[in-house]
Design goal:
With 456 residues, this protein is mainly alpha-helical. It contains 17 helices and 3 strands. It folds into 2 domains: 296 residues, no CATH class; 129 residues. The radius of gyration is 23 Å and the shape is globular. The mean pLDDT is 88.
Length: 456
């Protein structure tokens, strides 16, 4: 009976996940009225609740443990807190962006409960902290007017944090990633991603001359070099992608883009010959099955899991994702593909793409150049991480050990991504106030013109 229920619910989850994505891409179009969009947002939230409910039902039926229902209750309380507070304090915030964040968190909670319940509890605790933090950030973005003038601070703070990790950081799976204080472990590179986005926006918002571009490139290179020395290859790749995109968009010069790609290619070749861990990743990527007893084991198990899930998945608890090392962090997408199916996994990817599209839409609508570049930087950082993670577990690119934002286990990754979403929501509110200011100025100019016309 248990197997029948688990088999049945996976099809329902696939259907409602597909419905969620259909709403995202159809009703977010500008031709729909505000009332239609509000209805779409409410429908999406109902779908999210159904996914959470079905996940909790599967977990309870399989484990017969009351703690899964208690977890579900706290999970719902968390989302009610987020949605109600945004409704009260940020009524104009884009509902689809908030929904995407809640959906990704929900999928992560379901998979973490299935893989390791203790990690799911810790993830929920980190999410609760993040829910409080993201209520403050939009106001901060909207009220503080000197953010574009802190270029030196962003450069210094980001490099200093990464350098601290390089010197005293703890080694995890061969890379120096985290720093521990009083029993609390943090991964500074996750938060430096946000600092780096602020740096690029402030450095390129007003000056795109060659001399300034060289300075920005030197600072960006320092970020990347420190990360490579720390063996945090995934973060280094994300920073490099973000730098290239923002530099190209801000200057409009394709020569910079091609030069950056060429320099990146040379750097990759040099890293291959200089660092043994880079060679190991490349060997595992080229033919993981030839080294399945060693470096290729993780990628091989990931490919086995994805293939065994097919389009519709095995059903929750009916697969073997625990055979993949570090599946809760670096390879959770493989677990989702195996047990919830390829269609569900594709919808998950489309949700991430939809987030990126929303970030770009906000960037395009903002008039102030600094905030425009900031939205672009954060959006590129987000989608780069999604690409690097999914590309690594599917053997499209070498695996670099990064998390899937809001889905994989990891307190630093979760908090930094929630903060990233909060900054984007703050930028959207800034755009709204910017539009209101422009409209007021137009009305004043029209009144002045009418007065001059009446006098003449």
């Amino acid at each position: 009976m248990t197997t029948v229920v688990l088999e049945s619910t996976k099809y329902i989850m696939i259907v409602i996940m597909a419905l969620y994505m259909l709403i995202s891409f159809v009703f977010s179009h500008s031709k729909w009225s505000d009332e239609s969009r509000k209805h779409a947002v409410r429908t999406q939230r109902s779908v999210i609740f159904l996914i959470q409910l079905l996940g909790a039902l599967d977990i309870f039926i399989y484990t017969c443990e009351i703690k899964s229902l208690i977890f579900f209750a706290f999970e719902e309380a968390l989302f009610v807190f987020i949605l109600v507070n945004f409704w009260i304090f940020y009524e104009d915030a884009p509902g689809i962006v908030i929904n995407h964040m809640c959906l990704l968190l929900s999928i992560g909670f379901i998979m973490l409960q299935r893989l390791d319940f203790s990690l799911a509890i810790r993830q929920l605790a980190f999410s609760a902290i993040g829910a409080v933090v993201i209520m403050i950030i939009p106001v901060f973005i909207r009220r503080v007017t000197v953010l574009d003038k802190l270029r030196i601070f962003y450069a210094g703070a980001g490099i200093a944090l990464l350098a601290i990790v390089l010197v005293i950081g703890s080694v995890s799976y061969g890379a120096q990633l985290s720093v521990s204080f009083g029993g609390i472990s943090l991964q500074p590179s996750e938060f430096v991603k946000i600092i780096f986005a602020f740096y690029l926006a402030s450095a390129l918002c007003s000056d795109t001359e060659f001399k300034n571009v060289v300075k920005v490139t030197i600072v960006a290179a320092l970020y990347v070099i420190i990360l490579v020395l720390s063996k945090d290859l995934g973060a280094a790749l994300i920073f490099f992608f973000t730098y290239l995109v923002v530099l190209f968009v801000s200057t409009g010069k394709a020569s910079y883009l091609f030069a950056g790609i060429f320099a990146g290619a040379l750097g990759s070749v040099a890293a291959y010959f200089l660092f043994s861990h880079v060679r190991t990743r490349i060997i595992a990527w080229k033919d993981p099955f030839s080294v399945i007893d060693g470096a290729g084991y993780q990628v091989s198990q990931s490919l086995f899991a994805i293939c065994s899930g097919g389009f519709f998945g095995t059903g929750l608890f009916l697969g073997y994702p625990e055979s993949i090392p570090v599946v809760e962090e670096d390879f959770i997408f493989s677990a989702i593909s195996e047990e919830l199916g390829g269609i569900f996994a594709i919808c998950l990817i489309l949700t991430c793409v939809s987030c990126f599209i929303m970030f770009l839409n906000i960037a395009l609508q903002i008039k102030t150049r600094f905030y425009k570049l900031l939205a672009l930087s954060l959006g590129t950082t987000y989608i780069s991480q999604v690409f690097v993670m999914i590309g690594g577990v599917t053997k499209f690119i070498p695996s670099t050990g990064v998390t899937l934002p809001l889905v994989s286990y990891g307190g630093s990754s979760l908090l930094s991504t929630m903060m990233m979403f909060a900054v984007i929501l703050g930028l959207y509110m800034y755009k709204e106030s910017e539009d209101e200011y422009i409209q007021k100025r137009k009305r004043k100019e029209e009144k002045r013109a009418n007065r001059r016309r009446d006098r003449s």
